[in-house]
Fold:
Amino acid sequence: MRNTRAMIMMVVAIALAFVAVVVAARWISAQASGTTAKVAVAQVDISLGARITPDMVRLVDWPASVQPPGAIKDDKALESRVTRTSITRGEPILEGKLAPPGTLGGLSAVVAEGKRAMTVRVNDVVGVAGFALPGNYVDILVNTQEEGQRTQTKDPTISKIVLERILVLAVAQESSRDETKPKVVNAVTLELTPEQVEKLDLARSVGSLSLVLRNQVDPNPALTTGATKTTLLGAAAPEPAAKVAAAAPAPKPLPIRKVATVPPPGVKVEMIKGLDRSSQQF
Structure:
């Protein structure tokens, strides 16, 4: 009796295990057949502003659960499209990285709507030793002199951040980048709003420019008032005491001329006595 019960339980356990294996196999097979989809990826490194050709793209199976939004599933839809950003080899080609259909290739395809591209001259110091690469963000400093501020104790020279978080579109004539190799160039093309273009054009005409490389994900503005020689070297030196004008010598008094007073004439009395004559003055 006991052996029969044990045998029944063993058969039931084996049957349940077999059913579980069959169900799991079918579920895995169903999942495997529906979890991938074709996604277009870059077969080579594609620089921004480049026109995509068929040899640049290939279709690969991509897990449907982690398929990136905006992924392109038909490689023919990418023909003659222009990239707005650099795309590395093996990276999915997304709609957001492409310019609108019909856009011509070149740097103009990279400029965002409502923005402008402007080139400024730089050198190895101004251009952050070549580390300002396409896709980086920079701040722009101007060193100039304030008008009408020069005094005996105040120098009008000032250095001030005039533009912040400006996107670098290209360095020299290259819009692609090698993130591991800085490149010293003589010109940098920046993406600006029309108002920023006006500011930058004025800044480069009134002083010297410098680029300051900033963190890619730092959106915080730099609230500064600018640096002057006074703030650089400390408090302003006390103004020297004004020189007291020497008092003019008092004019010498004119000499007093004393005029001799003439006594009024007296009374003269002449006396005659016989042959004698005499006079007496009173």
The first helix runs from residue 2 to 34.
